[in-house]
Design goal:
The complex is a heterodimer of chains A (501) and B (345). Chain A has 501 residues and is α/β, with parallel strands linked by helices. In chain A, helix 5 packs parallel to helix 6 and helix 13 packs across helix 14. Chain A folds into three domains: 235 residues, Rossmann fold, CATH 3.40.50; 160 residues, P-loop containing nucleotide triphosphate hydrolases (Rossmann fold); 72 residues, no CATH class. Chain A contains 17 helices and 22 strands. Chain A starts with a strand and ends in an 8-residue tail after the last helix. Chain B is an all-alpha fold and 345 residues long. Chain B has a domain of 229 residues. Chain B is built from 13 helices and four strands. Chain B has a two-stranded antiparallel sheet with strand order 1-2. In chain B, strands 3-4 form a two-stranded antiparallel sheet. In chain B, strand 1 and strand 2 form a beta hairpin. The longest helix of chain B has 29 residues. Chain B is globular, with a radius of gyration of 21 Å. The chains are: A alpha/beta (501), B mainly alpha (345).
Chain lengths: 501, 345
Amino acid sequence: MTQLLKVSGISKSFPGVQALKDVQFELNRGEVLTLVGENGAGKSSLMKILSGIYTRDAGSILLDGEEVVIDGPKAAQRLGISIIHQEMNLMPHLTVAQNIFVGREPRFGPFMRERELNRRADELLKETGIHLKSRDLVSSLTVAKQQMVEIAKALSFNAKVLIMDEPTYALTESETDTLFHLIASLKASGTGIIYISHRMEELSRISDRVTVLRDGQYIGTLEKDELDIPTVIEMMVGRHIDAGARPTARGSENADVMLKVEGLSTRSLLKNVGFELRRGEILGFAGLMGAGRTEVARAIIGADPSEGAIIHVEGKKVKISNPSDAVALGIGYLSEDRKQFGLLLEQDVNTNVLLASLGDHANSLGFMKTEPGKQKSRDLVTSLRIKTPSIFTTTKNLSGGNQQKVVIAKWLARDCDILIFDEPTRGIDVGAKEEIYRLLDQLVAGGKSIIMISSELPEVLRLSHRIVVMAGGRITAVLDNEEASQAKIMDYATRSGDDKE
Amino acid sequence: MNPNTATKPVKAITAEGVVTGRPVVSFLRAKIQQSLAFATLVVLLVFFSFANSAFFTFSNITGILLSTAVIGILALGTTFVIITGGIDLSIGTGMTLTAVMTAVFIVNFHAPLVVGVIGGILVGALIGFINGFNIAVLKLPPFIATLGMMLIAQGLALVISGVRPIYFSGVPNATGFNQIALGTLFPGIPNAVVILFALAIVAYIILSKTLLGRYTFAIGSNEEATRLSGVDTRKWKIIVYTVAGLFTGVAGTVIASRLGSAQPQLGAGYELQAIAAVIIGGTSLLGGRGSIMGTLIGALIMSVLINGLRIMSIQTEWQNVVVGAVILVAVFTDSLRQRRAAFRG
């Protein structure tokens, strides 16, 4: 294979922080180089240097054997280096073709040549083997198809090097497969791909090589045949993490039923969902994206309307029609999307921790008693080991793991007995994940009951005492941890919702 | 790599990616818009004082304060609404309607003065409540809901008054009505000014010391996260708009008292001036950020400008141009700061 890109000795510092120090990697034509590292390891800075957003302090970049200067995004584009960001930058109300060629539309004087535009888009899509219709509105596409539009757009610049930053972040299993097929055909045509991912299970599937960064430094590169996930994780975090751990057995199998749900349906997806959650238990919810796990959580807490559900909390029949009812009953929901649904990013840690329990800190006239609240915040920050300079730090300045802990602190401050965690470790790096796991264990040991929705099977197996598997809006199995395995869960998760056990 | 470390010279990053900063610096940054507004106010006062000796006199300053009262009171209520990320376009004509209703109660129905005034204020609260209901329960966008209410209030004020001003003079039970705004509880200072500052203190306490204040900021920062935290956001939004309505009602009383009459044609356009005062004062139209102190300063900047330009014998038409330009500059500095903030984090 011929060398496409050789990066060596790259350093970059910002005032007060050395973001990259003597970093190197090589990329050949037609291969996938996966770049891994915890949050803050320097992956994004490195990619920003390659795509011309930052300039390097030192080091050299050889493209096709020639030293290149990348002094801006335009320069990167000209050199054939394209980046697909994690957040998509598409205009939903424009068509696929319009999105691909935005800013470069074929024109006749002041008029758009719409037919020519579509012809070019069709040509590009055909060449690259991307199955999209150029006239479809982007808003009508699935997330995966939208990702394809991004890729097509990147390729339309005749990219030699394609950088993908967590492209499977929002994709379902089958959509991921589609993406991987496309990556394979791009490889075949000689494109070099730099792939950034947090998902360990993807590494062995698509990487030709894996380069690990930690604390802004180059740690090492593993070839495909020496690739081994525990080794990669160890390189990433600099210590050993036990991947095969299982939960500690519960004291009693017959603890009180804290939450009982029967006959929960929604108009669009859920059909007759029912289950029990016992005190001191972590009940895992596994399933593919779109199986309806988040929908169950949101319906239970009254965030979305549902039909026919009979819900008992601690044996008493209750009616929950909006989230404030659920919270009053001691049910807290931690959304999969912390930033959008969990946190007030612009407000300080104190405000976020107390958000669900502000009513407890106000007198009957509505005046706040601030001191007890601040004390409670400080106590929770200490006991959950939230790393923040003070409780008055703006929440958006915390790392993902610490933001998640702030959300957990919010519900502990409210003293909720039932906690619903939706993807508790999404976007959190490996080291911080372990800490969240320990925290969940401690919570159930202390008598809380937890529903944990997760798309990562090792996580489900690591934490859940029992596992509910969903497919197509129905529950297809409830497994005890001892009898569960990744294969078994996947089997139930891929059944059509109808052949229920 | 955490991109927000790139442009923050004052911050250091630890291995875990926790950004540590000097709290003083971030505090100052939060206060910049407000202190910028304050500095602007001081500069204007100094400039006009040197430009014309008639400017910095006791009578002219109280005149400025008096002319700030109505817009200021409207702006105080609107501050709550804007911090939730909403907007209230109905406060101008809503004020007119409450003034007309006060007049109808007192002049036409011969209600006692106190009853008429309270009745008028409650009409304001009702307008706000309906806005809140339409926005929180019927899920109308605030712009549309209050635009509709603006036209309804304007129409009703005209219909009820018969498109004629209703005068309080010579009506026996209206004796002393003009004292509400123009009396001097404190020597030399019109009561309208006292009402403005008293309400500013009340609004400050509500916003910073009460549950309502906390939820106002929380809803503006992230309404869905607040709802999922078990806060009944519908209820609190209705309360916020009702509070804005109450302030509208008080403004209606003050303007009617000052003019000695309810003028059904007056009022349209006041809402935009009030909103401008709020924005000049550093409250973000995107919600989640704002202060009462800023709003008060914003309202004062507008009146000082108008008064100063008038005293320098600059045509009225030009005064509008200047005020418009000030609003643009204020919003521009705000967006500049937000862009920097977005870049940071």
